[in-house]
């Protein structure tokens, strides 16, 4: 009986100290021969870097991110298994022959980072609400 009680408390203690996998940063990047865009979003900041012409200077826009914006973005990930991001298929592969921009969505968490590759602003259907929210926040 004492062993069971001790085992129970040991398991309870271990689970209480287990780290929860929390999203800490989200990045969207899209590029082609003459175009570059990088959006970085954290709990308190938004940074948008853009260069639409290689010879032009890169534009950088920074601003604070509201708690409401961060929560709305995290809410879009509720229906997405982060570990499945790398294996989700892109709806198209036009980037393979320069028919579209090479785009990626990277999600950094407290435990790891996950990446999904796709064309333009066209990720897997599970991630389309996420992209819509990112665009809404960045514009």
From TrEMBL:
This protein's UniProt keywords: Signal
Output this protein's name. GLPGLI family protein
Identify the taxonomic lineage of the organism of origin. Bacteria, Pseudomonadati, Bacteroidota, Cytophagia, Cytophagales
Q: Which first-to-last residue range defines the signal peptide? A: 1-18
